[in-house]
């Protein structure tokens, strides 16, 4: 019966193991590096040296890649995501999990190097630490400044500066020291600007050789005996977990109202911050009504207390009208029910920010229409100064004023990370275009509560373009009438909103100024104005925005296609996919 | 946006491309530029020869191009003094058609494989850097295009593939060509938007089909811009 005993024994060990695993604390960190800084290699090395990679994964990449024969190209361990991206699958942030004897880790990682701000902003918003990579052979680049700035804005307390590729510079202590001095100055300037100092730790590493990533460099002879400090992993294991949500105020965004029958009505969601107990008084926003918590319901039992980040269902002592997106908060320390806000914004879309354009603002479980009413400044990362800017381009960081078309209950980001963070979504493409952190919130829209019309904003050129599918322009056509009719028909067929003015015998012929006035209105309204004149039978002349083409009228199909070409070239039609072989 | 504003924006973009070229084109002959003589490629060629007049320009001659394309290629090569290499498939058009029939009708992928992919990859493998005029908005398959990426050729060799015009729109290309007074392939004036082999290039527009503005075809990539599978 020894086998049974052995089995029971093992059962016990597994139970112990699972308990131990559960009790290990969790550290979330994000990574950021510029192109070719070796971010993939570093993560690959971290996973490999902590035995977090399966053998078949290692086998599948052995002998491939760009490293010397016999070495493993660790970047390939993380590059699977890149391949997925090339197939057109959009991945915003990929989370990787690994654990050591001391701690569990989640890495927020993003494929594609130009999306690094997305990585930082969406991945780091919940991170305890951020690893910023600097290529030792290149020194501190503008990207490194940007990464550090975003980490500071997001109030990530620990920044681990991994000075990589030390092997390429002969493990030069002086070069490492120079980068550290240089970057510490930058970090101080950033802290002065954002008001949020970070604790920086500098580690000289070679991700390729594995020095100071998991194992101290002392293990490989000759490499960096001058660095006495811990390896990157040792640092990650020893950092205090920064998530101290217990001293924040209670915030509970309602994700769902549960009504299985008429005896039960509960509000399900995840506690964003703070602690709640039955009997506590709460206020519901935006209505402002109050109630007491009667029960905290979970799957298997009711709780005596619950704290972030637990997901629970709350039952209140009396009926209130509450729906998804509402906020249940502790009666003390009320959030602001905001109609307007100031925020730091990290722009991450190829299309630049368009002030006064309608975006969707997603805050906790709530989505409301909003627009940027003004750009207060843009951060010049090279000089670390603020300057005026008409827009924010991809990877730009700035401060903006926002108008919300419906009020939402918010906290300032510096007081409560999850209640002060939001993202902006482009309603046309559904892409996440920016990550934001609220720095000030106002109860009324700019211009006062009674001036609600001001909050709706003027229709922008971008919105017109999105509606019509093209920009405004004036196309002048002169040639055989039948062909011009066919051209207009073909434009109409592809959805262009045309507005035709026949020149022949028209009032406009006598009033060129009037024609000009009308066509510029057409153009500004986003319509495709056609100014048409009958011409000779053999050629069609088409002109628009400074381009003019003369076409052979006998080849009708070619002539029509050429007019479409012209609209594409001049930027009136958006470029679309085409069948080019 | 006014014409002057567009012009100013395009000038900024031109400067950015010039900066990339100055940084990347070493003058040691290890950087090549593949040119189909379509607008974006010709624009990039013009900018590249400003930096390095003798940069190797590779033209893929499938034997099926429009007569206009050949004439235009010869004219530009002569006027600009290009260091032009014409890449030829293993078999001539006559040989291939005698052996396999009209592959572009029966098996266009195979035809592209034989006449484009094979000779091009073979040639590019001899260089360290491969410059292309690819743009993201040319096709859905190119939306994830990066300006700078490693590209694995069959056989495992990697080259650095650069697409300095990745962000450019059709409008940008035309304004830039207008500004730099670059004469363009006359086929554009006949309504073609993307010009390849004659049998596989059609007008993008059918006025009776409202969706023809979206120019979907049987396929959109010949294969020279698709990386060899890594497994």
Automatic annotation (TrEMBL), chain B:
For molecular function, the Gene Ontology terms on record are: 4 iron, 4 sulfur cluster binding; adenylyl-sulfate reductase (thioredoxin) activity; metal ion binding; phosphoadenylyl-sulfate reductase (thioredoxin) activity
Cofactor(s) needed by this chain: [4Fe-4S] cluster
The places in or outside the cell where this protein is found are: Cytoplasm
An example Gene Ontology biological process: hydrogen sulfide biosynthetic process
Identify which residues the record assigns to the active site: 222
Instruction: Explain how, and how many, cofactor molecules are bound.
Output: Binds 1 [4Fe-4S] cluster per subunit.
Q: Which reaction does it catalyse?
A: [thioredoxin]-disulfide + sulfite + AMP + 2 H(+) = adenosine 5'-phosphosulfate + [thioredoxin]-dithiol
Specify the signal sequence span.
Answer: none
Superkingdom is Bacteria
Keyword presence, Oxidoreductase:
yes
UniProt KW keywords: Cytoplasm, Iron, Iron-sulfur, Metal-binding, Oxidoreductase
What pathway is this protein a component of?
A: Sulfur metabolism; hydrogen sulfide biosynthesis; sulfite from sulfate
Q: Which GO terms describe its cellular component?
A: cytoplasm
* Domain Phosphoadenosine phosphosulphate reductase residue range list: 32-202
- Enzyme Commission number(s) of this protein: 1.8.4.10
Give the residues the record marks as binding [4Fe-4S] cluster: 111-112, 197, 200
Kindly give the Pfam families that the UniProt entry links to this protein. Answer: PAPS_reduct
Please describe what this protein does.
Catalyzes the formation of sulfite from adenosine 5'-phosphosulfate (APS) using thioredoxin as an electron donor.
Q: What is this protein called?
A: Adenosine 5'-phosphosulfate reductase
